[in-house]
Amino acid sequence: MRQVVLAGVLVAAAVVAFFVLRSGRDAGPLVGDGADERAADAPKAPGLASAGAPRDPRPEQRPADGAGPGATTEREGDGADAAAITGTVVDAESGAPIAGATVLIASARTPCALLVDDRVLAPPAGSPTASASRWFHGARPDYAASSTVTLAEGRFASPPPDPRAPHADVLVRKPGYLVATACDVAPGVPVTVRLRRGLTLEGVVVDLKGAPVADVVVDAKPPRGEPPAPGRREAATSDAEGRFVVSGLVAGPLFLEATHDRYVADPLGPVEAGSKGLRIVVRPAFRVAFRVTTDNGIAPDTPTVEWTVPGAPPWRGVELVAENHDNDLPAEVEWARAAGVFVLGPVVVPAGRPTARFTLKAIGMEPWTSDAVDVPEGGGGTTLDVALRRDPDLGRAVVAVESRDGAPLSFVGERCTIAVGRRDGKAVDAGIVYRPGERLELPALLAGPWRFVVRSPRHAPATLDLDVVPGALAEGRVALGPPAKLRVRFTAPEATVVKFRLMLGREPAWPFVENAVASDGAPADETGGEEQVQTAGAEGALLSGLAAGRYTVELLSPELSAPPTAVDLVEGETREIEVSLTKR
Questions:
Q1: What is the pLDDT of residues 151-186, one digit of tens each?
Q2: Which of 415, 427, 547, 575 is deepest in the core (most CB within 10 A)?
Q3: How far is CA 530 from CA 225, 457, 476, in A?
């Protein structure tokens, strides 16, 4: 069973990177010196949940004023243009005006932009009063917004985004500073917004020979389960000497991801905001496109590519790929754009080992696996020809969820995720495609015995076994019970980042972090995982979605030690443990 469940976890973890089950919000763009447009254009999974119902943009009662982390605001006197939202942005320490700060002016609402998420700001295009290109709260059309830029004296002015409801929330962003907000600003009542400088992460990006690498995007992200709000999700680009400075950060652990068209790198972290002397090593990238033909002449449905680079340990990944109409492909692909030929990718894999293998899979088609593909030591790109044929051995499966008393539940509404594996231990190439909705649909499964583990932050995990028959539909139901919950606190002589996991017997557990908060003040989309990260001395992480049983805390930070700590969890109850840490 361990082999089946672990296989299911690995497959689901790889596929969830592309089939993100988000409850009520799509993923937003990168927060940094301008939002990363790639996030907005990333492929979405079939059946992705839509945004929730719009909220009233003019509630009856609102806070009079507010500020983002580390920022202060104050009202000025009258005398401004009564029809405009006006104000001044200054440095909180020196009082000097700040020019070039981006100001988002949005229709006032509760909560205001005090709690913002990672859709925060893209640089305005054209004139200072150009329309904001990003939205808050799920890109809802009722949330009117515009953006402008402060002038040399730090001043800004802009008409209210909605003349029918002229009060506005003002959010200010400037690289190197913490985001600040002023709530419920009335036209003709100027506001002063004071920005405070944030912490930085400083380091250098080098290649395998130690030479600096320029133009690498270094993206700082919070640990799993924490919302990527400004100050916890920032980015910078390395200069000609490979140096980077990610600024405008609040204290806490962060992970760094490095992105470049010609290089790949493993994530670095956790590191504390404020750290200096960091070193990110990148290796050459090998970019592979796929020139696909199908026996029915129809474009591949939801294609995925699994890649493996042999070695110890092997490098591998599973990616959802889409037809590429851009020029971001190896040069030899361009001539292949013809009727009945579909160019997918590219997929980027690390160079440095002699060969790689690729498996491409699409709904209703037999998996295609390449021979060993030569990988140049210095990276580069190539194109593989793929012929896909319909697979007569495929079946379908539908998984429904219900309460213990038989009441139907929504798979998406309960924020469920699923791990998929074979009971006979056979490998699952290129991941599993599934479509979440009220029920979970798996449109293309090879015939045979399957096991599904359904997890939810609101319920204890449950297991379902189904036998899939070629050309037929297999249906099953999973009864979900209340979860056990555990709050884990770490104490240490000084603040330190702790990496840990929960063990249920000899198996790693898969908890969800429940105490994340989204931009609207409601619980965020809880993310689950075997490994968790938090800071010693904090209030602790509330972990949910657990089964009953005896758990132990296993430290994964090699520099820390702790006495054995165990706790017995009961369905529907919350327990707490405190773990005392010492340095090794």
A1: 999 999 988 888 888 888 888 888 889 888 888 899
A2: 415
A3: 12, 14, 27
